[in-house]
Design goal:
BirA Bifunctional Protein, domain 2; Gyrase A, domain 2; RNA-binding; OB fold (Dihydrolipoamide Acetyltransferase, E2P); globular; 597 residues; 4 domains; 22 strands
RNA sequence: GGAGCCGUAGUUCAGCCCGGUCAGAACGCCGGCCUGUCAAGCCGGAGGGCGCGGGUUCAAGUCCCGUCGGCUCCGCCA
């Protein structure tokens, strides 16, 4: 076999006149009768190879038998293309390789879809023939970019003294958080390992062990429903640091992220990154991971309507809710477009969508007739309403209004192309509450995770909350307890999150109590952590980045599937391998598993 | 668990709203011609019965119901 001396995509000026050997795939082939052009492709790119019938009849004949995606090796000399025949679309477009010797290493059946152009393919086809999909330029570049991202990240961790440590995949199921993937134990009938949702506890324990700074680029597994930005297995850049506070963790994160943007994209991010509070994010954007690349901010109208005759608004306010609006300025939406948006919010569970269209200085709407003069004036003022604007309202419990208007805002932003997609909007969300009340579970749950430290000055509130019997009073106290947590948001995606952890056993036990995790359960599930905290655990904190999301955002992609080599469909299926699948009864028996229909 | 969009040649799509030459286009594939193309060109050819199952109808890609699959979203995702 002729062995490669250079990648196709690397052929350049210095190769002129030289002989080289190329290995690759027939990307395209053009037969002009007496001359054949072969675009030969490998990982690094494409170069045109040429053979003339007159000068090399044997090779010509063989070349004529080539088809798309045949695997070939060839020996030839590099020459400059004749003037006027250069191809500026190719990096190697000024050169061509005159084939001297040609070897067919393998043939290929006709492909199920073209590899040589970027036609849109259904996700199913892409994944079923992922090896072909990955030959396509955009996918290849996505994975090569991802590869470079690993390299930069590893280097930065190395420079900053982080130690790479692997943590177990077969571990223990923990309550709280996502649903676990379980692995039955053959050696211990009836017992199960859980695949890790994150290496959270292990990295904390590594801090107790004194490693000071740990990192890992690691798979995490969560058995939850999929989304464009969520796969059941995904990759985190995970790290933890000892003897630090939030400023240290955030500033290291900024260094890591800005270095990646600089080196991989040539984009200079301004550091330190901007910070906004959780409350502010919700107030202004109705989301804890807002996309701030466009306006349409939420406007609070509660005070305007506090005495309103309009039943819908009044009831919402009387029930402790809010009235908020967004002004889609200059949109001149038609009735049909407004109806479409109404349908959208209804799909989120809203009853309807109140709106006002401003036309020729008049408010055109089914609801203005319920407003008093003062209300109307105040409304126009707060929303800066002008002709051409359409204002949407939501009046309900705070969470519902945030959900409805936050999603509506995003929907409009996307649908009407309001988003400046060239921009990277990078910022921290901080000042999260430590706990929130969960209606369904009828208890407090952690906003981040149960190991997140509250602010020092809020610990007293926690202790008081534990003593208080009255639930409303308890809620009130707990509401104001802030977590030492921080999320990194880029372009409306949560790409990372972390916190300073609890490093004292007493505080950890207090939080477990507030989460209504019994002492027994805490001992059973987290005993090893509590025990570790007894033996000189240093103050520590860290963060984890969603690597797939980060890479997708950097590449301007909407779905993380495009930066994962072998992702799953929305139903969690791998069309390439057919996983998940049934297994042999023998396997089940060994695992002491009986399948119940 | 729920909502929406989609499912027609190998691929990407049109046709579905207004049932009855509606089974089409492009690319790909096969054969032929052609010495400078690079989404090569020109000529010719093969290829699907419209995801699947019911129903309505004289007649169904076309209407209705169910089901499966893909995607997007809500729930869920500490």
């Amino acid at each position: 076999m002729l062995k490669r001396t250079k990648y196709c995509g690397h052929v350049c000026e210095e190769d002129l006149g030289k002989e080289l050997v190329l290995n690759g795939w027939v990307h395209r082939i053009r037969n002009h009768g007496g001359v054949i052009f072969i675009d030969l492709r490998d990982r690094e790119g494409i170069v045109q190879c040429v053979v003339e019938e007159k000068t090399n009849p044997e090779v010509f004949e063989l070349a004529d038998s080539l088809r798309s995606e045949y695997v070939i090796a060839l020996r030839g000399t590099v020459r400059r293309r004749p003037p006027g025949t250069e191809n500026p679309k190719l990096k190697t477009g000024n050169y061509e390789v005159v084939i001297k010797e040609l070897e067919v290493l393998n043939t290929s059946e006709t492909l199920p879809f073209p590899v040589d152009e970027e036609t849109h393919l259904s996700e199913e086809t892409k994944l079923r023939y992922r090896y072909l999909d990955l030959r396509r330029e955009s996918m290849r570049e996505n994975l090569l970019f991802r590869h470079k991202a690993y390299q930069v990240a590893r280097r930065v961790f190395g420079e900053e003294g982080f130690v790479e440590v692997e943590t177990p995949f077969l571990t223990k199921s923990t309550p709280e958080g996502a649903r676990d993937f379980l692995v039955p134990s053959r050696l211990h009938p009836g017992k199960f390992y859980a695949l890790p949702q994150s290496p959270q506890l292990f990295k904390q324990i590594l801090m107790v062990a004194g490693f000071d700074r740990y990192f890992q680029i690691v798979k995490c597994l969560r058995d939850e429903d999929l989304r464009a930005d969520r796969q059941p297995e995904f990759t985190q850049i995970d790290f933890e640091m000892s003897f630090v506070d939030e400023e240290d963790v955030m500033s290291f994160s900024e260094k890591l992220i800005s270095t990646m943007f600089k080196e991989l994209l040539g984009v200079e991010l301004k550091t330190p990154f901007e910070r906004i509070s959780y409350a502010q994010a919700l107030e202004k954007y109705g989301s804890d991971k807002p996309d701030r690349r466009f306006g349409l901010e939420l406007i609070d109208l509660s005070s305007i309507f506090k005495n309103t005759e309009f039943k819908v608004f009044r009831q919402a306010l009387e029930n402790g809710g809010v009235v908020k609006g967004i002004n889609f300025k200059g949109s001149n939406l038609s009735r049909k477009e407004i109806d479409e948006l109404t349908q959208f919010v209804q799909s989120l569970g809203a009853k309807g969508l109140a709106w006002i269209k401003v036309e020729d200085g008049k408010l055109n709407s089914p609801i203005v007739k319920f407003f008093s003069q003062e209300e109307t004036h105040a409304l126009i003022e707060s929303t800066k309403a002008e002709s051409g604007d359409v204002i949407f309202f939501s009046a309900d419990k705070r969470e519902v209004v945030y959900k409805v208007l936050g999603n509506l805002r995003l929907h409009i932003g996307k649908k009407y192309n309001l988003i400046d997609t060239k921009r990277f909007d990078v910022f921290w969300v901080v000042d999260f509450p430590l706990l929130e009340w969960d209606e369904e579970e009828n208890r407090f749950v952690s906003l981040h995770h149960p190991f997140t430290s509250p602010r020092e000055e809020d610990i007293l509130l926690l202790q008081e909350a534990l003593r208080v019997q009255d639930l409303e009073e308890k809620k009130r106290l707990i509401q104001s307890v802030r977590a030492r947590a921080y999320d990194l948001v880029i372009n409306g995606y949560e790409v990372g999150g972390g916190s300073i952890r609890i490093h004292k056993k007493e505080l950890q036990e207090l939080v477990f109590k507030l989460l209504q995790i019994s002492e027994l359960e805490a001992q059973e599930k987290f005993g090893f952590l509590l025990e570790a905290l007894r033996f000189g655990a240093p103050p520590h904190g860290g963060l984890a980045f969603g690597f797939d999301r980060l890479v997708a955002i950097m590449r301007g992609l909407d779905s993380i599937r495009d930066v994962i080599a072998f992702p799953k469909t929305q139903k969690g299926i791998c069309p390439l391998t057919g996983a998940p699948d049934y297994v042999e009864p023998k396997q089940l028996k060994e695992l002491h598993i009986k399948v119940v229909e």
